Amino acid sequence: xxxxxxxxxxxxxxxxxxxxARDDVTIGMVLEPPNLDPTSGAAAAVDEITxxxxxxxxxxxxxxxAVQPALATSWEVLDDGRTYVFHLREGVSFHDGSAFDAxxxxxxxxxxxxxxxxxxxxELFQGIETVEAIDPRTVxxxxxxxxxxxxxxxxxxxxxxSDPASADQAATAPIGTGPYRLAGWRQGDxxxxxxxxxxxxxxxxxxxxxxxxIADPTAAFAAIMAGDVDAFPNYPAVETLPQIESDPRFKVxxxxxEGETILAMNNAQKPLDDIRIRQAISHAINRQDxxxxxxxxxxxxxxxxxxxxxxxxxxxxxLSAYDPELSKKLLAEAGASDLNLRLxxxxxxxxxxxxxxxxxxxxAVGIRTAITNMEWAQWxxxxxxxxxxxxxxxxxxxxxxxxxxxxxxxxFHYARPEFQQVMAQLKATVDxxxxxxxxxxxxxxxxxxxxxxxxxQLPKVGVADAGLQGLWQDAPxxxxxxxxxxxxx
Length: 489
Description:
Layout: H1 2-20, E1 24-29, H2 44-50, E2 59-61, E3 67-69, E4 72-78, E5 83-88, H3 102-113, E6 128-135, E7 138-143, H4 150-153, E8 180-186, E9 190-195, E10 208-213, H5 217-226, E11 231-232, H6 241-245, E12 250-265, H7 275-284, H8 287-295, E13 300-301, H9 324-333, E14 339-345, H10 349-364, E15 367-373, H11 376-385, E16 391-396, H12 417-428, H13 432-448, E17 453-465, E18 468-469, E19 486-487
Parallel strand pairs: 1-10, 14-15, 14-16
Antiparallel strand pairs: 2-3, 4-5, 5-7, 6-7, 8-9, 9-10, 11-17, 12-16, 12-17, 13-17, 18-19
């Protein structure tokens, strides 16, 4: 009898141990990526699946925002920031079995800076003068001017290293060096990744991952409650957080992102080429009402295009404070008594909810808007690439991306020469104090020009099964680090 009880107890303990040894996870996402090539698209959803999972760069951004080694184990900065020598990791293979070496780095960087490059952040690579493979494990990059942020830029998703044999197929058949490889894509439903058996690093605890695409907030809440997804790192139904927080099965993780959420304006198109019109629009917006209505109060107001968590952030919200009477006065001065503008809204709930609120606020000062709800691919093609819009609401989640305001081809068409000069100085400066001063100056310039309507910094609101460990609290980079996840023992 004693033996039978002891055996039963042992079997129960073994069964419990096996039940806890999960190696799979299902992650919920609001948006489905248009493709899986981070070097040719601007959608954050691409990086949220591929960054650090499928693809890796010379460097990487960790959960705390620090630049860390990745495919380069170390690097040297020479000539006051004009030359970078990267020492590459040994024993690395691409998912197709080919070996990684210096020639892949040369190919990737030359491809990104080529005249016919389709890289969404091509500007990041324009300062490269030459890329040389000194030997199979060493690459020297020479820049045409010092660049204190080059190691950081090499950590962006736009700079991941590609396999020359498969780079052109990365949109649908990505081949990288990361701990996971693509296992399947059901369009409109999900993407599956599986652990790469020949990965150079430690074997991850999660060997099978599924990303499910659930755009509707109500459906996202239902999926979490039913256990159909294990985590929603960027949860769209923030109004349900009290209910989730009260349920011991789940945990809520609130942090911040690099996502400056803005009412973007087409500065090249009448009447928005008139600063008085842009200023009037900015003063017509009650940020707190937008935050309360679109984000249920969970967001930080901003007054320029810069993350408040950054030490160089300048609080310029007062410059575009809510003042509808001033808006009416500015519109009258500009002779805009009957203004009709198009407002394009992509799928995220913050855009759709926020758009309705802002449309009402603009209507209160005499500006009428025609709202068009767009699917993600349509928004990217029409607004971001085509520039065919008046107003739109979008969160720019690329880290340290204030430099986009210097780009003449960027969709809101600002590119003031004085701003471009500040950005050129910043790129050539390695002194930390000088860089801080230039970043503050850049923020003040675009705020004073009312380039866009500054709304709020997108929070990172995540919900997850209480037993899932390793999810990022903040998002210094759009990413879901699968290799850092594990189930609690």
